[in-house]
Known about the structure:
This protein is mostly helical. Helix content is 80%, strand content 0%.
Amino acid sequence: MSIQTQALEQVYDHLAQALDSVPESGRTLMLTRLALLMSEQIGDSEVICRLIDQATLSG
């Protein structure tokens, strides 16, 4: 499953706006909630862990 560049940019913009709307002290919690909600939708722990590792390396 893959997302097209335009759709990915839309997701990026939406996430950036959402993060801007949350006080800095709550951003980690918001991202944790988002990761858990997205994990529930993905439903594959191996994929989820791989994505977490990729995000960690990209940071």
